[in-house]
Design brief:
Blueprint: H1 3-16, H2 21-25, E1 29-32, E2 38-42, E3 50-54, E4 58-60, E5 62-66, E6 69-75, E7 83-91, E8 94-96, E9 104-107, E10 110-117, E11 134-142, E12 147-155, E13 168-172, H3 188-197, E14 205-209, H4 242-257, E15 267-272, H5 274-285, E16 292-296, H6 314-325, E17 329-335, H7 341-354, E18 359-363, H8 369-379
Helix pairs in contact: 4-5
């Protein structure tokens, strides 16, 4: 038999041989079912034990043997809430990504396979068929650190073709994270695109800088290359106030490089966890810069005044921020199961005792990205009104 005839027969069999209903419906990896349960499957015939560790469940997969072959499978017992979910498999003690899912993202030094359950708010985290903004990786020079620093900048749909000036949201990441957190697992660009097209959010620029003092870009993106290992723990100088002191450099660069509203009314700052704490200190020390402040699971503590001028004259600066400068919005958000919940309650008590006005939102959840993504969904529509 010639090689050409053999290839023709193989192609014909592949294209035209009927497959069973089970074969047609089988989807390897993870899938959302019609009843909003999730089924995961993994082809690992030699494995002794397989588990899934995810934001929607933690469970053992059951070994299956059928006409499809030998594989492992698990279906959640209850419908899974709409959200962006992450998961990994544990195969005989080894953590692996889903080999059938090409979509993975990093947070705190670990990669995760990603699955979006549709609905509210999950559909806000999808890249839908709507006008899109542009996400750029940008370098600026920091005089304070005597080096170039990396940031990610989102410009709204139509920015490149207009002459309009836009307000700016400075959006900060947490400890063990970097400038890729918000545009990645944080879904900031998708959230903005979807809310802008719905008319719920004013078109704005979103600036997501690297807030780590001892690095100037995400792992693999600076001169150290992959020798700079992705973070899996906080950096030691992040609590010294150095990033907060140097923050006006970022504003100066953005106002020069982009068409921005260069007044307080056109600027907001917000962040999660460490980034919320940085927003807390930056906004208090530079109250003329921001009319909108968002603290997502922040640590609202004064810090050591010996470390930096940022931490000095705490009461005086707080009074100036709330009474003299009067921001349009001071917004605190947190998950009801967050370990920082009581600390935030104490801070709100302080604000109440002094008559300082603020807005407060709490949502189900802990110190996690599903909370912080949803807090951004709640916070962004309040800006620049």
């Amino acid at each position: 038999m010639s090689k050409q005839i053999f290839l023709f027969i193989c192609t014909y069999i592949f294209l035209f041989t009927p497959c069973t209903k089970a074969q047609r419906s089988k989807q390897w990896g993870a899938q959302v079912n019609e009843d909003m349960t999730i089924t995961v499957r993994l082809r690992a015939p030699e494995a002794k034990a397989v588990y899934i560790k995810s934001t929607f469940d933690k469970a053992a997969l059951i070994k299956q043997v059928d006409s499809i072959g030998i594989y492992w499978m698990y279906t959640t017992s209850e419908p899974v809430k709409s959200d962006l979910h992450t998961y990994v498999f544990i195969v005989d003690g080894q953590r692996i990504l889903d080999p059938e899912n090409g979509y993975s993202l990093m947070a705190s030094g670990y990669n995760y396979s990603v699955l979006i359950v549709p609905g509210d708010p999950g559909s806000l985290y999808r890249t839908n068929d709507i006008p899109h903004g542009t996400v750029s990786r940008v370098w600026y020079h920091s005089t304070a650190f005597n080096r170039d620093q990396r940031m990610v900048v989102y410009t709204p749909p139509g920015y490149e073709l207009s002459q309009e000036k836009y307000p700016v949201l400075y959006l900060l990441h947490g400890s063990s994270q970097n400038e890729e957190l918000w545009p990645g697992l944080g879904r900031a660009a998708q959230i903005m695109d979807n809310l802008i097209v719905k008319g719920k959010v004013e078109p704005m620029i979103v600036v997501m800088p690297n807030g780590n003092v001892e690095e100037y870009a995400a792992a693999g993106e600076d001169s150290k290359g992959w020798d700079l290992y992705p973070q899996r723990g906080g950096l030691p100088n992040n609590d010294k106030g150095l990033f907060e002191e140097a923050f006006p450099e970022i504003i100066a660069f953005v106002d020069k490089a982009y068409r921005t509203v260069k007044e307080k009314t056109g600027r907001a700052i917000a962040g999660l966890s460490m980034g919320g704490t940085q927003s807390y200190h930056i906004s208090r020390n530079f109250p003329d810069f921001f009319d909108y402040i968002g603290l997502f699971s922040a640590v609202p503590e004064n810090g050591n005044p010996k470390w930096s001028p940022i931490f000095q004259d705490y009461d005086k600066k707080l009074y100036s921020q709330f009474v003299t400068k009067k921001p349009k919005l001071y917004w605190i958000g947190i998950g009801t199961g967050d370990p920082l919940y009581d600390l935030n309650a104490q801070y709100r008590l302080l604000l109440n005792q002094n008559g300082y006005k603020y807005a407060y939102v709490e949502v189900p959840g802990g110190h996690d990205l599903d909370v912080w993504r949803y807090l951004l969904v709640q916070f962004a529509p309040l800006l620049f009104k």
